[in-house]
Amino acid sequence: MERDFKQWLALFRTSIANYQYYTYFDKVFSNVDAIKVELNIMNSLIGSKNIENDFDNLLCKYPSILKCIPILIAKREMDIEAIDEEGSFCYNFKKMNYSVEQYKIFMRKTGIFNLIENRIIGSLVDYVTGIETGLDSNGRKNRGGHLMENLVESYIQKAGFVKGITYFKEMNIGKPTGNDIREGKVTLPLLHALESGRREEVESFLKVINEKDFSSGNIDALIEFAKANGGIEYAELRMKEYHDKAVEVLMQLPESEAREGLLALADYIMERQK
User: Fold this and answer.
1) What is the mean pLDDT of residues 249-271?
2) Which of 25, 204, 221, 231 is a plausible cystine mate for 226, CB 3.0–4.6 Å?
3) pTM of the predicted model over 0.70
4) Which 8-state DSSP code applies to residue 167?
5) What is the C-alpha to C-alpha distance for residues 116 and 51, in angstroms, rounded to an integer?
6) Which long-range contacts (CB under 8 A, 24 or more apart) does 24-30 make?
7) Share of the chain above pLDDT 70, in %
8) Helix orientation angle between 25-33 and 124-136, rounded to the nearest 10 degrees
9) CA angle at 202 for the pair 196 and 203, rounded to the nearest 5°
């Protein structure tokens, strides 16, 4: 039977947002707290008349302040690339890989020194709290997904299905992405590659995952590793198996709008994942 997706989508609510959908402040405050000491140390640079010299001395005395610099330009990654007429650089903010002078060039050219020495901000803790709040808005897509999952799950449970027995939740079978890996999510394609890949490669990539060394280069390598070892094809095969099983179970229910909606959802998810 041909199902009408437009008719089905027209039945959706305009919003399923709850109060935590917009900003998850627990996560915002947790991220700030993790570097609050370093940020307060760097607060001593606000209004400095000789910021480059003061930064040099501060970094020498408190090298841990290095790790809080990326978030000052709204970056979470510890490896930051920059290129201009003077060359191409990839700065590491876990462990210095250039001279202090080169890091001062980074601070000057990105505008961080200007921000601090001219008192454009009064507190780096408050400033980073604002940045984290802005970055957290990127998580609305995932929060919206979870809200929809919970809503659909309530209907599935009302239909008599039992979690972990006749239905399953949040099975990662999608294509591996940089954000997934950076968040520590090992999706099915990558999991398959880790189980079937060459031992040397597997051990190397497991070390990257366990140490959360998610530089841009490592993320690209993990994605290629999953593709080269048939991870995508394996995930698509398993996805089809679960889709067909879901349709088989749903077809046992009496014909109704609810059943048609769940059937359409199963088809929709298959098409969205491709």
Assistant:
1) 79
2) 231
3) no
4) B
5) 8
6) 24/136, 24/139, 24/143, 25/133, 27/132, 27/136, 27/139, 28/129, 28/132, 28/133, 28/136, 29/129
7) 89
8) 140
9) 145
